[in-house]
Design a protein that fits this description.
alpha/beta; 3 domains; eight-stranded mixed sheet; 16 helices; 12 strands
């Protein structure tokens, strides 16, 4: 039997659930949608279930009454257990249906006069809001579950709903045909995970092969028409901007020098003869203070101007729980003594990845590892961060050089921005990849 009760009359005894979670989100939902599930109390007004709903209604929404169901249970403990443990949660496929309904609902509200909470929600991406309201941890999980519902066999959907196959693994299986899905589902849970991993590796290899073929085809169509050069010649190149991404002692790659200080001082001293107005050097947090000293002392004719920041914003876990995760890298910027070169000259506006609030922070996260961001070098930097630097410190037609070019993200950015580019790398393999990549992705932006 349902009744509207005065909240002040409801008695809350000792409860086993201590963590109430995010009551603000629950209050927002109640404000907009109403109380979809009433609380439960005994005839003597003892709370049986719905403490979170009660607290959100009373403490956040400041309401005096609440809809309640009068229940007859053997004990308060039994009622609390039945409500919180025995009840059946929505399955992932059910949550997909709920989320899609919420997406439609939010979409229908656009342009209408809505409550404040709806206005806040409409200010975010519809999919994010729907994923959150439907109980998915994030929009990516919602996307994966949606793919399973759309492309999976009935058996795969049931396996996801029952928990036999995780949502992420099920989304991988949903990419293959129905016969392969059914064959994989005959395996035990451990073997299913291994099969999903192998399918993902197979898909990645096929996608990368297609991309490499497209890059090679682009390289073959150049017919000698190019504004860039990739060489193994270590001689200094006169340039307007030098961008260096040297070894800085944090990987186990074979090119890491045994004596980082001696190596760094040597190349700095050599390349100080390039004549560039600016030298931008990617470096590591680990050797931050040593690097500043070595650069100051080994770049004759150049003066430290400022330290820029590349905000990596990567998704990897911290390498050690003893320290914060490294989500940024320094970029040391040096100016040639006597240079009056301006950043963003000739009336250029902040744009092309440059913004008023981040004029010394490159807010460029790791890419999606496709297209120009396909990972083909272990220390590869994103093309947008190179565009960010080149756009700010050079003009079209000027020369950008990079003595440790790798697979040339700097070269791609330079050609996109109509600059000349000269990249140098000791690896014949990386030089070949660099040429393919510039040919494929160096179109003018």
């Amino acid at each position: 039997m349902l009744q509207t009760l005065n909240i002040s009359t409801i008695k809350v005894g000792s409860r086993h659930r201590k963590d109430m979670g995010d009551l603000t989100a629950l209050a927002d939902s109640i404000r907009e949608e109403g109380l979809l599930q009433p609380i439960g109390v005994t005839e003597t007004m003892q709370l049986v279930f719905g403490e979170r709903r009660l607290q959100a209604t009373r403490d956040i929404l400041k309401k005096k009454t609440i809809l309640a169901r009068i229940v007859d249970v053997s004990s308060i403990i039994a009622g609390e257990y039945a409500e919180n443990e025995i009840r059946k949660d929505f399955t992932p496929s059910e949550r997909v249906a709920i989320a899609k309904a919420i997406e439609r609902q939010i979409g229908n509200r656009r342009g209408q006069r809505v409550q404040k909470i709806a206005q806040v929600e409409l200010g975010t991406k519809t999919r994010d809001a729907a994923a959150d309201r439907a109980g998915f941890g994030n929009h990516e999980t919602y996307r994966q579950a949606s793919k399973v519902v759309q492309n999976g066999t009935a058996r795969l959907i049931q396996a996801m709903d029952s928990g036999k196959v995780s949502i992420s693994a099920a989304s991988i299986l949903a990419d293959v045909d129905a016969d392969e899905q059914e064959a994989v589902l005959e395996l035990d849970e451990k073997a299913i995970l291994q099969a999903a991993k192998e399918i993902r590796q197979r898909q990645t290899a096929a996608r990368n092969h297609q991309q490499h073929e497209a890059e090679s085809a682009a390289r073959g169509k150049l017919n000698g028409k190019k504004t860039w050069k990739i060489t193994a010649d270590q001689k200094v190149v006169p340039c307007d901007l030098l961008i260096a991404d040297p070894p800085y002692g944090i990987t186990k790659e074979p090119w890491e020098p045994d004596d980082l200080e001696a190596f760094t001082r040597k190349w700095c001293n050599k390349w100080s003869a390039c004549g560039a107005d600016f030298i931008a050097i990617f470096w590591s947090q680990e050797h931050l203070w040593y690097g500043r000293q070595w650069f100051d002392e080994s770049l004759p004719g150049y003066t430290f101007q400022q330290m820029l920041v590349w905000h990596i914003n990567n998704a990897w876990s911290p390498k050690s729980k003893r320290r914060f995760k490294e989500s940024w890298e320094p970029i040391f910027l040096y100016r040639r003594t006597g240079s009056t070169r301006q950043v963003l000259p000739n009336g250029k506006a902040w744009g092309d990845g440059l913004h008023n609030l981040d004029c010394f922070v490159a807010p460029v996260p790791e890419g999606n590892y496709t297209g120009e961001e396909l990972k083909q070098h272990p220390c590869q930097k994103p093309v947008p961060v190179m565009r960010w630097l080149i756009h700010a410190m050079t003009e079209p037609g000027e020369m950008v050089a990079s003595p440790f070019c790798g697979v040339a993200p700097c070269g791609i950015a330079s050609t996109q921005l109509e600059r000349h580019y000269h990249g140098i790398d000791i690896s014949a393999n990386y030089r070949k990849i660099a040429e393919r990549r510039i040919a494929a992705y160096g179109q003018v932006k």
